[in-house]
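quick one: N-oxalylglycine bound model?
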Amino acid sequence: MAHAKAGASLPVPNVQVLAQTWHGSGEPVPGRYVRTEEMGAGEVVAGCAIPVVDLSRLLDPRSSEEELANLGSACQHWGFFQLMNHGVPDEVIQDVKRDMIEFFKLPLEAKKVHAQVPGGLEGYGQSFVFSETQKLDWADMIYLMISPKESRDLRFWPTRPPSFRDSVDRYSAETAKVTASLLRFMAADLGVEPEHLLEAFRGQPQSMRTTYYPPCRQAADVLGLSPHTDATGLALLLHVNDVQGLQIRRDGKWHTVDPLDGAFVVSIGDILEILSNGRYRSIEHRAVVHPDKERISAAMFHQPCPNTTVGPLPELVNRDSGGARYRSMDYMDFMKNFFASKLDGRRSHMDAMRIY
Ligand code: OGA
Ligand code: NI
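yep, here:
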């Protein structure tokens, strides 16, 4: 999501307000949200056991080797895993969850103080709306640049509840530590110098999308978040309230993910797929909504810095008989392609990167 101004969305109605007024109306869900065909198209398999990685076992010399194999297998074969014992203090997580929940409870006018502005990506609103006719997701979101600190635009940072900014700040520092640690273990699994992998994420840029999915009594006819891969390095997804809705695509089917209490759901993004020369895979995922419960999730994205060239790590290219499987490109250009491809299909921005 980050950086490329090209991705700015057109303004659309606020879904939280729409849901509130529509719910008691007896009317069918407005046409722009109807995705019945898409929702009915693929088989949905319940209770997907995505791999569980234990960071404390990675850090413990007695279990590190075994857990590293587990991490490597998760990144190569799943592109998604749950991370437990990640070491982020419970207080930091509880505070950020509470403040996100409080923010979405505010009246619309108070949230709109931080609304997206024309041409921009950050703030409260919706993402990926590029045409007046496209189908819409059943959700509102607030997107913020978090790190480095100079990238923060405080116009978009909520001041209510008053602790919001501080909670996000502490959460950001903790998730950055977890991510740096994971990247080091991923480098070990890939057999590359940790600094070579970390170099792509110099200064550890972060951005965060917190999404509010209102309940929908026609939940089977709408989509909370359209299928996508994360155009980032690594995303740490926090289930802010205890309502699940995430589905990942595997073997052509959609699998629902049941988040473990206290764990992060980690997604391998497109950039890690490219850096790893295809050893790791970024996986398509989407979010569905609940008929009578609201759902809130927060994705902390860890991406390269704006003027980094992203391409397969030379150490891996030299080792792979087929050479580079992806082109190298400036990260900003990659993001421009990503947004352009949203207009015509889901993974075409990655197809443009692949070398056959
Ligand atoms: C995302 C995302 C999933 C969810 O924000 O990129 O995939 O469950 N979110 O909200
Ligand atoms: Ni995602």
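The CA atoms of residues 233 and 272 lie 5 Å apart.
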